[in-house]
Write a structure and sequence with these properties.
Elements (H helix, E strand, L loop, with lengths): L2 H15 L7 H40 L18 E3 L6 E2 L5 E4 L3 E8 L2 E8 L7 E9 L2 E9 L6 E6 L2 E9 L6 E8 L7 E6 L5 E7 L4
Parallel strand pairs: 1-9
Antiparallel strand pairs: 2-3, 3-4, 4-5, 6-7, 7-10, 8-9, 8-11, 9-10, 11-12
Amino acid sequence: MNQDETLAAALHEAAASLPVGTAPTAAVMRRGTAIRRRRKAMRSAVVAAAVLVPVAGAAFSATFDPPSRPSAPVASPAAPAAVKVVAPGEEVTLGGGSTMRLTAQGMSLSTPKASGSEERLTKVAEVPGGKISVTMAGDATGTVWAGVYRGPERPAGVTLSAGGRTTNARIVTLPGHPGWVAFHAYNTRAGTDDFTVTVLGAGGTVLASQAKPGEG
């Protein structure tokens, strides 16, 4: 055996004596899977960031954009009938030259006559609670009605129906809460004995009503 053959035999013997381990296949596979997961997570984060930008912009716009339609106006409640407050004994001009005065005792109606004037007094003490007392005077030029309503609730309106017409009477009262009001109305048509007076409360409820049919 020459020198070369001796060296080759020695190398083969040394190689055969070395231990041979198992190939690290599982470790290599786990490392590759972890790398792929990290790359996938990075791509998902980039896509999510790109989607969030327009969504945030839409939310901002929806918050501050004006409404597409204006709100409907709220209807104002109807104003209550005007009530004139007068001092005791103060003269109130009605119509056709008639006047009215209020005192603690009641209402005084003055109507013109050819020989002067006529005074009619309606005493509050003689008007039952929740009732109406009405007086009228007229001629060919027109008719005036005046009356008293006595009750705990101040009327929201008083209507007078006569000769086929309905008129809103005017309400007059004394300062404070006397527990009664006076009212008056004037009709330029010829006088008539056929009339109906209605006292209305809040919401159109009828507090009292009095009808006087015509004579004849």
